[in-house]
Amino acid sequence: MLKSQIEQQIKEALKAGDRRLVETLRFLISAVKNAEIDSRRDATDEDVVMVVQKQVKQHRESIEAFKSAGRDDLFQAEQAQLEILQGFLPRQLSEEEVRVIVQDTVSLLPEEEKNFGKVMGIIMGKVKGKAGGDLVSKIVKESL
To answer: InterPro entries this protein is in (predicted)?
Structure first.
């Protein structure tokens, strides 16, 4: 399970003395535990991936803010944490792979069901955790 893998990496990082890795993984485990409390159940691997994606998005936003503010020290710290978090995400689909999935899905739908919301719902179910909603949205808009 992904959660236990993260906890094991925390132990290894503590032994190795890697402060940045320990800090990042502890923050991640804390976010996973908060998600468990919110949902009132143990986190599945899919839940953990969703938490990681949320953390990655927050770090990307922070990186942009630090870059525009000229805070290179904080930018580099956030970048290092982002790279650690991305190691827990499944391989992301390329734009071409998403394009193929969208085209296949749209071609199978009857004409009256080819609206943006319906297509997005179907495709996001297929690519959950493997492609960003912004990329899927862009490709669906181009296809319809």
So the answer is: Asn/Gln_tRNA_amidoTrase-B-like, GatB_Yqey_C_2, YqeY/Aim41, YqeY/Aim41_N
| Angle value at C-alpha 45, between 40 and 47, nearest 5 degrees | 45
Q: What is the pTM of this model?
A: 0.73
For 36-86, give the DSSP string. Answer: HHHHTSPPPHHHHHHHHHHHHHHHHHHHHHHHHHT-HHHHHHHHHHHHHHH
| Residue 131, CA distances (Å) to 10, 52, 111, 112, 144 in order | 27, 13, 25, 26, 19
Rg (CA), the chain: 18
What is the CATH T-level fold of the domain 95-143, as seen in this structure? Answer: Arc Repressor Mutant, subunit A (1.10.10)
Which residue, 84, 65, 86, 83, is CA-closest to 74?
A: 65
Give the C-alpha distances (Å, rounded to integers) separating 120 from 89, 130, 132: 21, 14, 12
- Tell the CATH topology of 2-86: Hypothetical Protein Yqey; Chain: A; domain1 (1.10.1510)
Q: How far apart are CA 124 and CA 126, in angstroms?
A: 5
CA dist 42 and 3 (Å) reads 10
